[in-house]
Specification:
100 residues, alpha+beta, 4-stranded antiparallel β-sheet, two-stranded antiparallel ribbon, 2 helices, 6 strands
Length: 100
């Protein structure tokens, strides 16, 4: 049988697994692979629809009995640290990170 590549993305649903956030709940995700020439445009569109991206996979929660997860996007150029955040940064100014 000959298979022809499709131009439309294919979406998949994961099997239920224990929720990493809410004890006693199960999570599912709907996902697609971001491939091809239109991957950047598809990622932009899916991001606006609440999808998240990890490498070339776009996904979002699709839990049957829960809607607690909310995708949040912070625009870095518009971010302003709160007074509490600034206080924490100052309190930890002596910390240094190093790679070995």
């Amino acid at each position: 049988m000959t298979q022809h590549p499709t131009q439309s993305p294919q979406f998949f649903l994961t099997a239920p697994s224990p929720c990493p956030y809410l004890e006693g709940q199960f999570e599912r995700k709907v996902f697609t692979h971001l491939v091809g020439d239109k991957a950047p445009e598809m990622n932009d569109l899916l991001t606006q629809g609440g999808f998240r991206r990890s490498q070339n996979i776009a996904y979002r929660p699709a839990c049957e009995t829960c809607r607690a997860c909310v995708s949040v996007r912070i625009l870095a150029q518009e971010f302003t640290a709160s007074r509490n955040m600034k206080r924490v940064i100052q309190h930890n100014a002596d910390l240094v990170g190093a790679m070995h």
